[in-house]
Amino acid sequence: MLWYKVQKLLIEKEMSINQLSLKMGLSKNNRTMYQLRDGKIKKPSFELMCKIADALDVSLDYFRKRDD
């Protein structure tokens, strides 16, 4: 569910995973976002979620809302 929301925003903003990582202050070779995409990160840290939200210009609440 989390990755679905991240991916939706990436598509809307025409942004790649690498671009998102760089905007989050991670190195180009950092695998964090790929690990999140692949389900290897089950419970992302608050810090990571804040970086994702800031980089995608959304509030943390965006990720808390359920898509019914």
Tell me the name of the CATH class. Mainly Alpha
CATH superfamily: lambda repressor-like DNA-binding domains
Count all strands and give the number.
0
* Gyration radius from CA atoms, angstroms: 11 Å
Second rung of CATH, namely the architecture: Orthogonal Bundle
DSSP helix fraction: 55-70%
Query: Alpha-carbon distance between the termini?
Result: 12 Å
Largest sheet: none
Description:
The protein is an all-alpha fold. It has one domain (2-64): lambda repressor-like DNA-binding domains (434 Repressor (Amino-terminal Domain)), CATH 1.10.260.40. Helices cover 59% and strands 0% of the residues. The protein has helices spanning 2-12, 17-23, 32-37, 46-56, 60-64. The protein is globular and about 30 Å long.
Describe the secondary-structure layout:
Blueprint: H1 2-12, H2 17-23, H3 32-37, H4 46-56, H5 60-64
In short:
The protein has 68 residues and is mainly α. 59% of the residues lie in helices and 0% in strands.
List the main descriptive attributes of the protein structure presented here:
68 residues; mainly alpha; 434 Repressor (Amino-terminal Domain); 5 helices; 59% helix; DNA binding
